[in-house]
């Protein structure tokens, strides 16, 4: 009977369609928090998230709802991150639920990212409740969105709920629909423990805490548990629920959503997707679908001031405590000194980590161009997984190189089809097909090398389609490709941090653009500075930074000491954000400016 009064659900929505606003309303309606406490949106609590307006970390919330049928229900809302970098985490939160609210903006319709997540929900047999939000807006067109839901997703939308999360319209109906239309969990308390980890985070006192959905069995303080992927065992120190803060309870049972703390030192031992079982009475098979997430995008991160190396290491270690998918190892660059080679799930993940390092840890960083993992097949039979272009073996030792390819789906109004074809072709995309999902919108499918989208594909897509196209991708596999290493020489010296791996057909254009950009971002010195691009020993592009005509100080008339001082002071400040490469000073922005291709 207990289990019949539980509903576990998530919200699937495209960024900005109103997921957080709806979640806040649900919390408010169930009186979990007073209006005053609601000042801040509860679910998105990280600063950065708020600024970027995207949901990064999952935060579950337990709601108690008194239904119109007179019974009390426990509703567990499991939040899902909305961005393509975090698809695997989305799939685990979906696996922890029986139902999903599909929230679609009444003025926008369905987007590619929503689609990917709805398909995930359908794959897991979730009960889906279509909700059309923002009906308060004059341009809302609920009938159009209903038809879209039926045509594109293929689920009935007759009984879609029409709401305005912002104005608080239709919220009660959403809660009733959760009770009526979503199935209660089906688990067995008497079977051995099986709990799915859908998130984890590091607490200074309690250690790594697993957020779990208990599928079978039960778990309480003092139990010995085992992680099924690693076989590691721990003793449970606390179990609890999200109310919405972590509140201890006596036990978690089949059907429950809650957390388990077990003095675990490292979030790496609480991998998302892993199954927790009992050490004494283990389940025979883990829950399906566990996969170890591996970083796809790499870059070098160096302290702008060499003195900060240890601080940077500390900061990375601290971030890693809460982010099992961030990897890093020490790296040295002739140009940039000591730093780290870091791996990320995707570009957004990379940007978030960089920003947190600069903002929360007050570090000035120099970041090198992002790259992917190449598979280098050597003539001696060895296969190298290369994430740092500087480590590419000599050409004579290489048999061939493979690069990662992703399958991309782009959803766009028909008027931009030509533009997108041009952009994708320019990024070496292979067109696979196009479906009309309605008269004015199409879904285009491409295979594109990951290497080509990690630069500014998102930006280019958005700016060329005025923000109307949406985009999603997943790794498809590796493919042989004609790739070369492009080196940059400044004043005759190779700058290893600027080396990149490029497709042969693109290398001349890239070389030209990089040298132009660098020429523009390197300030004039007292001497002329050649900026060259080379493949091996062959120079393929060159620009020159002209020499300054006179010493700047010559401009101050001999006697004016204070002015001279001021000028020197100013130069010194400018210097802090410069890297000395040989005799040349290169501003930090130069390292990033080469990333913009468009
Ligand atoms: P992510 O956290 O990035 O997934 O975004 P989200 O889907 O949570 O969107 P959020 O709730 O932050 O809402 C996005 C914007 O839409 C905000 O400016 C909201 O105020 C606005 N919004 C949400 N619901 C409604 C609504 O019913 N009507 C109107 N007019 N605006 C709404």
Automatic annotation (TrEMBL):
Which GO biological process entries does UniProt record here? positive regulation of translation
Q: Which domain of life is it from?
A: Bacteria
Decide whether keyword GTP-binding is in the record. Answer: yes
Q: Name one GO cellular component term.
A: plasma membrane
- PROSITE patterns for the chain: G_TR_1 (PS00301), G_TR_2 (PS51722)
Per the record, what are the reactions this protein catalyses?
Answer: GTP + H2O = GDP + phosphate + H(+)
Residue intervals of the Tr-type G domain: 4-186
Q: Any idea which positions bind GTP?
A: 16-21, 133-136
State the EC number(s): 3.6.5.n1
Which GO-annotated molecular functions does the record name? GTP binding; GTPase activity; ribosome binding; translation elongation factor activity
Q: How does it sit in the membrane?
A: Peripheral membrane protein
Q: What is its main location?
A: membrane
Keyword Zinc-finger listed = no
Task: Fetch the CDD domains from UniProt.
Answer: EF4_II, EF4_III, LepA, lepA_C
Q: Where is the signal peptide?
A: none
Enzyme class, broadest EC rank: hydrolase
Provide this UniProt record's keywords sorted from A to Z: Cell membrane, Elongation factor, GTP-binding, Hydrolase, Membrane, Nucleotide-binding, Protein biosynthesis
Q: Where in the cell is it found?
A: Cell membrane
The record ties this protein, via InterPro entries, to: EF-4, EFG_II, EFG_III/V, EFG_V-like, EFTu-like_2, G_TR_CS, LepA_C_sf, LepA_CTD
Q: Which family does it belong to?
A: Belongs to the TRAFAC class translation factor GTPase superfamily. Classic translation factor GTPase family. LepA subfamily.
**Classification via NCBIfam families:** lepA, small_GTP
Q: Briefly, what is this protein's role?
A: Required for accurate and efficient protein synthesis under certain stress conditions. May act as a fidelity factor of the translation reaction, by catalyzing a one-codon backward translocation of tRNAs on improperly translocated ribosomes. Back-translocation proceeds from a post-translocation (POST) complex to a pre-translocation (PRE) complex, thus giving elongation factor G a second chance to translocate the tRNAs correctly. Binds to ribosomes in a GTP-dependent manner.
Name the UniProt record assigns to this protein: Elongation factor 4
- Recorded source organism is Aceticella autotrophica
């Amino acid at each position: 009977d207990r289990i019949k009064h539980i509903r576990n659900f998530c919200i699937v929505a495209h960024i900005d369609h109103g997921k957080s606003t709806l979640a806040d309303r649900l919390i408010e309606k169930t009186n979990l928090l007073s209006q005053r406490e609601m000042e801040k949106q509860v679910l998105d609590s990280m600063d950065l998230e708020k600024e970027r307006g995207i949901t990064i970390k999952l935060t579950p919330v337990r709601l108690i709802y008194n239904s119109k049928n007179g019974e009390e229900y426990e509703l567990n809302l499991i939040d899902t991150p909305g961005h393509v970098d975090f698809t695997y985490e989305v799939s685990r939160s979906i696996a922890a639920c029986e139902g999903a609210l599909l929230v679609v903006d009444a003025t926008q319709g369905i987007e590619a990212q929503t689609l990917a997540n709805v398909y995930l929900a359908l794959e897991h047999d979730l009960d889906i409740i279509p909700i059309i939000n923002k009906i308060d807006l004059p341009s809302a067109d609920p009938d159009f969105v209903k038809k879209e839901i039926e045509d594109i997703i293929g689920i009935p939308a007759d009984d879609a709920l029409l709401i305005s999360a912002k104005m608080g319209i239709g919220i009660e109906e959403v809660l009733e629909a959760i009770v009526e239309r979503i199935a209660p969990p089906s688990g067995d308390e008497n079977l051995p423990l099986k709990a799915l980890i859908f998130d984890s985070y590091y607490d200074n006192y309690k250690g790594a805490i697993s957020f779990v959905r208990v599928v079978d069995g039960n778990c309480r303080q003092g139990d010995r548990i085992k992680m099924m992927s690693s076989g590691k065992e721990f003793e449970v120190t606390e179990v609890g629920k999200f109310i919405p803060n972590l509140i201890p309870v006596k036990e978690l049972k089949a059907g429950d959503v809650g957390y388990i703390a077990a003095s675990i030192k490292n979030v790496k031992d609480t991998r998302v997707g892993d199954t927790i079982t009992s050490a004494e009475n283990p389940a025979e098979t883990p829950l399906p679908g566990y996969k170890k997430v591996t970083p796809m995008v790499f870059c070098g991160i160096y302290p702008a001031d060499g003195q900060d190396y240890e601080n940077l290491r500390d900061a990375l270690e601290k971030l890693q405590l809460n982010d099992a998918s961030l990897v890093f190892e020490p790296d040295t660059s002739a140009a940039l000194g000591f730093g780290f080679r870091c791996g990320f799930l995707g570009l957004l993940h990379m940007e978030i980590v960089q920003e947190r390092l600069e903002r929360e840890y007050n570090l000035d960083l120099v970041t090198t161009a992002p790259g992917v993992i190449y598979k280098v097949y050597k003539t001696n039979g060895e296969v190298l997984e290369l994430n740092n272009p500087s480590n590419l073996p000599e050409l004579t030792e290489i048999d061939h190189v493979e690069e990662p390819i992703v399958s991309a789906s782009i959803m766009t109004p028909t008027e931009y089809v030509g533009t997108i074809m041009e952009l994708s072709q320019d990024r070496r995309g292979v067109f696979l097909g196009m479906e009309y999902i309605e008269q004015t919108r199409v879904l285009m499918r491409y295979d594109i090398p990951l290497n080509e989208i990690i630069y500014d594909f998102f930006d280019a897509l958005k700016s060329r389609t005025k923000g109307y196209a949406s985009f999603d991708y997943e790794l498809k596999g590796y493919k042989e490709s004609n790739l070369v290493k492009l080196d940059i020489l400044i004043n005759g010296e190779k700058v290893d941090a600027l080396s990149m791996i490029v497709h042969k057909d693109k290398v001349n254009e890239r070389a030209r653009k990089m040298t132009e950009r660098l020429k523009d971002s390197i300030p004039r010195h007292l001497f002329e500075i050649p900026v060259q691009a080379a493949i091996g020993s062959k120079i393929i592009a060159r620009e020159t930074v002209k020499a300054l005509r006179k010493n700047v100080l010559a401009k101050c008339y001999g006697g004016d000491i204070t002015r001279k001082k001021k000028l020197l002071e100013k130069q010194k400040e400018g210097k802090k954000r410069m890297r000395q490469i040989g005799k040349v000073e290169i501003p930090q922005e130069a390292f990033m400016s080469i990333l913009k291709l468009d």
